[in-house]
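Example 9 (inverse folding). The structure is encoded as follows.
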């Protein structure tokens, strides 16, 4: 399976460095933050939305390395969000050739949440982008089933799909059977990692953003997850490793370990 390297796996890198590391570890794509975020203090400051030179450099690097941008972050739709707020970032994602943009939804009002999401999808589609909804227990789209229901309600066949994070599937109480029940064309990209069977509910955000386990090192059914994925879904290596970062391991070394573990899991699953 072709792999993309997620920015969280090498969180302490600039976009062009992420591209270099992806190529060095045998990945064919990257899942990229367009702007650094204060909630990710390890991420160095950058802003591809406003920095034309940085965008140009990243496009050239990806072209030279034969990489694609498989997913672009962050697109967080909250109670005060309007679809137009995201227009500049959507245009930049399109300029970078992103296949999809990742949407997290936090608005507690279900009617407004759907309206904002539908408007966001319209703007994304207008610049040639698909929207991939990431269900996440701390958000207002907490489960795989809720993500599917949102996409159906928005009536966006083919242009809206799901970011299927194995960690979020497990922590939301989902199962491999739930994955198999989703229409194959609805899963745009899957994110792989591993973790302990149980987690402190108060530390879900920290676990997701900072500390996951390499595929095969934890209790998740990684093989079952891989076998349940449709052939059309992309696969991203999303394994933030704060423990190894504190030990002084370089981004390339951390990413190489995550990619190697993922490749071993793929082979073990017969994919």
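The amino acid assigned to each position is listed next.
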């Amino acid at each position: 399976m072709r792999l993309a390297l997620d920015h969280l796996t090498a969180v302490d890198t600039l976009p062009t460095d992420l591209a270099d590391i992806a190529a060095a570890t045998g990945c064919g794509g990257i899942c990229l933050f367009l702007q650094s975020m204060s909630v990710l203090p390890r991420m160095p400051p950058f802003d591809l939305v406003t920095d034309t030179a940085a965008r140009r450099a990243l496009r050239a690097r990806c072209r030279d390395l034969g990489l694609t941008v498989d997913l672009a972050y962050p697109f967080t739709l909250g109670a005060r969000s309007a679809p137009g707020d995201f227009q500049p970032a959507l245009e930049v994602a399109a300029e970078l050739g992103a296949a999809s943009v990742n949407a997290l939804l936090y608005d507690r009002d279900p009617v407004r949440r759907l309206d904002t999401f539908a408007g966001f999808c319209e703007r994304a589609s207008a610049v040639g982008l698909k929207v991939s909804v990431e269900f996440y227990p701390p958000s207002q789209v907490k489960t795989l089933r809720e993500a599917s229901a949102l996409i159906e309600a928005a009536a966006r066949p083919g242009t809206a799909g799901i970011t299927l994070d194995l960690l979020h599937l497990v922590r939301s109480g989902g199962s491999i059977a739930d994955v198999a029940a989703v229409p194959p064309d609805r899963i745009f990209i899957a994110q792989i990692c591993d973790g302990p069977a149980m987690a402190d509910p108060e530390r879900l955000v920290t676990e997701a953003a900072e500390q996951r386990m390499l595929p095969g090192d934890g209790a998740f059914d990684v093989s079952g997850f891989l076998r349940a994925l449709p052939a059309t879904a992309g696969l991203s290596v999303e394994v933030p490793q704060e423990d190894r970062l504190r030990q002084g391991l370089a981004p390339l070394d951390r990413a190489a370990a995550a990619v190697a573990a993922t490749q071993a899991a793929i082979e073990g699953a017969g994919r």
